[in-house]
Design a protein that fits this description.
This protein is mostly helical. It is 55% helix and 2% strand.
Length: 392
């Protein structure tokens, strides 16, 4: 306890200004300081992650998952991380990495007359090449959209047109009768083409292919509207009464209780990337997410964690902090809206804490550090708002 006589003696000095008393900082200063500190931490974390991917790139320009798996998908996702940093084929700190990745896709030995981007000689891609087709198309379209060199643009345009054609031909074709009785054509994608996979399709590949097509269309590559329409009809047919997406179309109305949260998050992302903020379907998907908030805004690992977080993060970034209220004007409690800020509050501390500070990689999950690192770098760099496919 300070001496009372000392305090009394000092009071006149304070009053005369001989001794200054620190003024308390404004109440909003602490949150602003916290935000500044987090931004600095994010920047440092991203820098380490990009350096890890730089070192992990193979001499010929590709990346791969554990055991040499999924090189097409991994090269596309890692390449996107560098594009989101701001590097291009010609400019930026990591332009060499982008160029090597694009050259790998354009290598004559990889070119296939039918437009397939994957390499069926790789056992992991032989049975799942459509993932690489979707992710690869998204990456190459994002590069093409920023490329100014005429010769390089022509090479990319030729490859992209073939890649889009391959995706469209690989789509399944089925008939679905809506609740009101109208019959429509629907079409998704499976792990391989419809012809090779006996017309099998499922949600995760469908989302990947659809996002690839939309990135291509954003870049000016022609994409047939009918293929997009069939894919949207497919997702609608796979939507249950509660608004969740099921694993795959089973020939009848999607049943309650079979929903897959990661697929539902991915569907929202695709809907938003097409600018569908007011249509009914994305609203149904969002309602499902809101009703299962404990799954979508959860702390700790879950099944298909990176996949779900990758797409849900994109969806929340597109929503921002106000669009949920625009979509659901009857929801008055703003603190309970699904927003980008809430997503960041839950996931960014986890992402930052889980990075291996020595290597710069994230090593959670079974696919491997290239995959998880690329996903997390995408999420941490969304606010740079550089690539059309990720923009609001």
């Amino acid at each position: 306890m300070p001496d009372r006589r000392l305090l009394v003696a000092l009071l006149p000095c304070v009053a005369l200004g001989l001794i200054s008393v620190p003024t308390p900082a404004p109440a909003e200063a602490a949150p602003q300081e916290d935000k500044k500190k987090q931004r600095q931490e994010i920047e440092a974390t991203v820098a380490k992650g990009l350096e890890y991917l730089k070192k992990a790139q193979a001499q010929d320009g590709h990346w791969e998952a554990q055991g040499g798996q999924y090189p097409t998908s991994m090269t596309a996702l890692a390449g996107m991380a560098f594009l989101m940093e701001g590097s291009t084929l010609k400019e930026g700190k990591y332009s060499d990495q982008v160029k090597k990745a694009v050259d790998w896709f354009l290598a004559p030995a990889r070119q296939q007359p039918n437009g397939m981007l994957g390499d069926v000689r790789n056992p992991s891609e032989q049975v799942r090449y459509m993932y690489g087709q979707g992710f690869g198309t998204m990456f190459l379209a994002s590069v093409y959209g920023e490329e100014e060199d005429k010769e390089q643009r022509e090479k990319l345009e030729k490859l992209l047109k073939k890649a889009v054609e391959f995706i469209c031909k690989a789509q399944t074709l089925k008939k679905h009768r809506k609740a009101e009785g109208k019959e429509v054509d629907i079409g998704g994608w499976g792990y391989v083409s419809a012809a090779e996979g006996n017309n099998f399709d499922e949600g995760s590949v469908t989302i990947t292919a659809l996002q690839g097509l939309r990135a291509a269309r954003n870049a000016g590559i022609p994409v047939p509207k009918e293929n997009i329409d069939k894919a949207v009809n497919y997702l609608e047919a796979c939507t249950t009464p509660d608004g969740g997406i099921i694993y795959n179309y089973l020939g009848e109305a999607a049943l309650r209780g079979q929903e897959r949260p990661p697929l539902t998050a991915a569907a929202i992302c695709c809907g938003f990337s097409a600018g569908q903020y007011k249509s009914e379907l994305p609203k149904r998907w969002l309602k499902y997410c809101k009703a299962h908030e404990e799954t979508f805004l959860a702390k700790g690992r879950q099944a298909h964690d990176e996949y779900q977080t990758y797409y849900f993060g994109q969806a929340m970034y597109a929503l921002g902090d106000t669009k949920y209220g625009d979509m659901f004007p009857d929801q008055k409690e703003k603190d309970k809206w699904l927003t980008w800020s809430r997503f960041k509050d839950v996931y960014f501390p986890q992402i930052l804490n889980n990075q291996d500070k020595s290597s710069g990689a994230w090593e959670q999950g079974q696919v491997g550090p290239v995959y998880v690192t690329s996903i997390n770098l995408c999420l941490l760099q969304l606010e740079k708002d550089l690539l059309p496919i990720y923009q609001k």
